[in-house]
Design brief:
Blueprint lengths: L9 H18 L7 H39 L11 H15 L27
Helix pairs in contact: 1-2
Amino acid sequence: MSRIVLPTNPDDVLKLLDSIIKKEESLAPNGQLTATELKDLKAYYASALAARNQQVLLYRQAEEQTKIYENSLGTDAKVDQPGNAKYIYTGLRDVLAAKNKTNLKMLADWGFDVVDEVAPKKTKKA
């Protein structure tokens, strides 16, 4: 026994609508949809397709902007090198840490997150 599976993926629904519209237009005026239903279906299809095309464009733009964002900050850089903010702020961190060896908490004044670490206790050998 056969069954009809309706798509749930929006791109697949667009493909189905396109096929339906083409088939109904080829059968006109003897199609299964009324003129009003076909007109409405075409409007829904056009609206959805326009939105999908805009979505794709904006997604590409968002990807490009994310790359610019991350490259500028240097958050994706594994090695500190000139050409991004990370290079500058890690250099500043190093200079400040060298000047404030005994009180690294001073770096918090610049916005650095300073974490206190407790050194493990050494055990005496018997």
